[in-house]
Design goal:
This protein is of the alpha+beta class and about 700 residues long. The chain folds into 3 domains: about 200 residues, Aldehyde oxidase/xanthine dehydrogenase, molybdopterin binding domain (Aldehyde Oxidoreductase, domain 4, 2-Layer Sandwich); about 150 residues, Aldehyde oxidase/xanthine dehydrogenase, molybdopterin binding domain (Aldehyde Oxidoreductase, domain 4), CATH 3.30.365; about 300 residues, Aldehyde Oxidoreductase, domain 4 (2-Layer Sandwich). The chain contains 19 helices and 28 strands. The protein has a 7-stranded mixed beta sheet, with helices on both faces. Strands 19-18-17-12-27 form a 5-stranded mixed beta sheet, with helices on both faces. β2, α3 and β3 form a beta-alpha-beta unit. α18 crosses α19.
């Protein structure tokens, strides 16, 4: 894509496509205020018979570009390679919200299908009127409408007819009949991402690759530590550089120059002159969890109103009480935050790496003091986010610098800036209490999760007396969304504690779970993973040097189970994950290859959080803000991964890009316990910190 293509507006965009058949060109303001969205908010019929589909979603590696193209192709009865999907451009596409929460598959795919199915019906009705026949007698296949008498009319014919056919200015029907799953021709198949060739050959331009004519490069002054406030600064040295633009707007100080090296020189010349008011930060990564405990707002905890849990705990045959800790981690996307901003008069266009084009548009308008209609945000397919790019920090910085410079400006965060100033996954302290009756069944459950949030906090197990609470606390680090939110922490604690309860009951971990599990979907994946892993046989062959463990969980309306094998070092202080078998179900499978890729990616990402990833900080400063000190998984760390996709055609499709991560860590910890008898109750899992368990139901070899 050349540079000028990036600057196309909606009117020019439609002109480039050719006259075609405008399925409508109603302005977004008309339907955004309560009226139904018109078909043209989603689709445009081109003269060559291809379809332009429009979506406000962002492609950041999870696969919506393929799925949404499949959705349009399925309902319009055309091959998927005849769909051209335009994404994440506030001048061209509808506002579909941020790309987060695994919502694209359950929400936006159906919306695209409804638009395409409505268009198909309207186009078929046009042909029926032209031929004076009943529309029900017509068929659509490969972009052609055919009649019983042999009449044929292609989409391209309708598009080229221009004014000779009525403009299809109709609202998308939410009750339109969609193609039945058994009749799918495009959905349900493995379709590669449409731009995969550009991605593998280096032809695709990520946000950090965007270049505009005359573009400058920007750097921004950062505080020395969290909580620091700029009191004074001398920018005269940078201002004396003829080829440098200096911007000072309140606490914002930035520099733009023809090269990033020159902008960095200006920053380095100025930074020593800055005077900062710093606040004392007694919290470090070593005292983080005690800080969370001390600052937990327990008045917001759910109470045991009937007293049933308290009574059950008092009268139980056996009570266990443990706590689990989860470190703060960074998202570590391959592409750090990046943006380019370009002003034309009082309008600004920003190319950015964030997952909400319309959210970014609003933030830019507020920050720059201009109307939203004067801000255009374009988000090229970007290099990862994992929930970490909900904010448009680099876009705001680039826009300020570009306005002052009168030229386009590119701001690319360094890896150290990304690790330090991007928000992180919340740390967690989780308190668990569980009771067993005389028969070894669960009688009571109390679960208090401090700080990570309430995702997946409800237990899926049938327990007669249970209470759960999500309790906020004051984090010393900026924190926010992460892949599957707090479900990773909550599921780690719950599934680890379930193993402890199984051990206390003298029960096999699989049998103990199944005895308390009524959710048929969760049972199905747990049984599938156990069968494929050969749990019963391998559980009976556990030794001090080799252990197996399992875990399961549900979130985002999908279910997952994992079985893991670990090898323990002869020293007894280290272990290696040798195999992960995971079964996953998220309803009907729209794109098997893409879903498999998402599950595998979740497993590898889950390994990082489980084994090595931890933000270390002290005095408000991150101590490991680079990959040489912050250990993410490498290829050599990846074990044998065996994924089994379980299809459930009895429910609507759910998202698959998050939930597979939540079973990884607890399954690993439970496998380590099976071999060593030591419980690992903190993530990342370190065998040297594991404590001997009171109960050690490890079978002999």
């Amino acid at each position: 894509m050349d540079e000028t293509t990036y600057a196309v507006g909606r009117r020019t965009f439609l002109q480039i496509l050719g006259s075609g058949l405008v399925i409508t060109v109603t302005a977004p303001e008309t339907w955004a205020q309560g009226s139904a969205m018109p078909v043209s908010a989603r689709l445009y019929l081109n003269e060559d018979g291809t379809i332009t589909a429009l979506s406000g979603k962002v492609e950041e590696g999870q696969g919506p570009r393929a799925e949404l193209s499949q959705a349009a192709a399925e309902e319009l009865r055309v091959p998927v390679d005849e769909v051209r999907l335009v994404m994440a451009d506030t001048d061209l596409v509808p506002d579909d919200g941020i790309t987060a929460g695994s919502r694209t598959t359950p929400r936006n795919v159906p919306e695209m299908r409804q638009a395409a199915a409505t268009a198909r019906e309207l186009l078929t009705a046009l042909a029926a009127r032209e031929w004076n026949v009943d529309a029900a007698t017509l068929q659509v296949r490969d972009g052609k409408i055919t009649g019983a008498a042999g009449q044929t009319m292609a989409y391209a014919d309708l598009a080229r007819a221009g004014e000779t056919v009525a403009t299809l200015d109709q609202a998308i029907r939410t009750d339109v009949a969609l193609t039945r799953l058994p009749d799918w021709k495009v959905l349900g198949r493995s379709v590669p991402r449409p731009n995969v060739r550009a991605l593998v050959t280096g032809g695709h331009r990520f946000p950090s690759d965007v270049v505009r004519p005359g573009m400058l490069y920007g750097r921004v002054l950062r505080p020395p530590a969290y909580g620091s406030t700029l009191e004074s600064i001398d920018v005269s040295a940078a201002q004396a550089m003829d080829d440098v633009v200096v911007v000072r707007e309140g606490p914002f100080v930035g520099f733009a120059a023809a090269t990033s090296h020159r902008a960095t020189e200006a920053l380095e010349a100025t930074a020593p002159t800055a005077s900062w008011k710093t606040s004392e930060s007694p919290v470090s990564h070593e005292t983080l969890h005690e800080h969370l405990r001390e600052h937990a707002r327990r008045e917001q905890a759910r109470t045991d109103e009937t007293g049933s849990v308290s009574k059950a705990l008092e009268n139980a045959h056996r009570v266990l009480e443990e706590e689990y800790r989860v470190a703060s981690v960074q998202h570590a996307p391959m592409e750090p935050r990046a943006a380019v901003a370009e002003w034309e008069g009082d309008h600004v266009t920003v190319w950015a790496g964030c997952d909400g084009p319309f959210r970014a548009q609003k933030a830019l308008a507020e920050d720059l003091g201009i109307p939203e209609k004067q801000v255009r945000v374009i988000i090229p397919d970007m290099g990862g986010g994992f929930g970490g790019k909900h904010t448009a920090n680099a876009a705001l910085e680039a826009a300020r610098l570009a306005r002052a410079a009168g030229k386009p400006v590119s701001v690319r965060w360094t890896r150290e800036e990304e690790f330090t100033w991007a928000y992180c996954r919340p740390a967690a302290l989780i308190e668990c209490r569980g009771a067993l009756d005389a028969s070894g069944s669960l009688a009571a459950w109390s679960f208090t999760s401090i700080n990570p949030g309430g995702a997946a906090i409800e237990t899926p197990y049938a327990i007669p007396n249970a209470t759960v609470s999500s309790v906020p606390s004051d984090s010393p680090l900026p924190q926010g969304s992460y892949r599957c939110l707090g479900a990773t922490a909550n599921n780690f604690a719950r599934e680890s504690f379930m193993d402890e309860l199984a051990a206390a009951a003298g029960s096999d971990p699989l049998k103990f779970r199944l005895a308390h599990l009524q959710n048929p979907r969760l049972r199905a994946v747990l049984e599938k993973a156990a069968k494929e892993f050969d749990w019963a046989d391998r559980r009976g062959k556990v030794t001090p040097s080799r252990g197996v463990g399992l875990a399961c969980g549900t979130e985002k309306n999908s279910v997952v189970a994992a079985c893991v094998e670990v090898a323990v070092d002869p020293s007894g202080n280290a272990f290696t994950v040798t195999e992960i078998c995971e079964a996953f179900e998220c309803g009907p499978i729209l794109n098997p290859a893409n879903l498999l890729s998402q599950v595998q990616g979740c497993i590898v990402m889950g390994l990082g959080g489980a084994l090595t990833e931890e933000l270390q900080f002290e005095d408000g400063r991150i101590l490991n803000p680079r990959f040489s000190r912050y250990r993410v998984p490498r290829f050599r760390d990846v074990p044998l991964i065996d994924v089994h996709l379980v299809e459930n055609r009895g429910i609507p499709p759910a998202g698959g890009g998050e939930t597979p991560i939540i079973a990884v860590a607890p399954a690993i910890g439970n496998a380590v316990f099976a071999a060593t008898g030591r419980r690992l109750r903190s993530m990342p899992l370190r065998l040297s910190e594991g404590r001997p368990a009171a109960v050690r139901p490890r079978p002999t070899a």
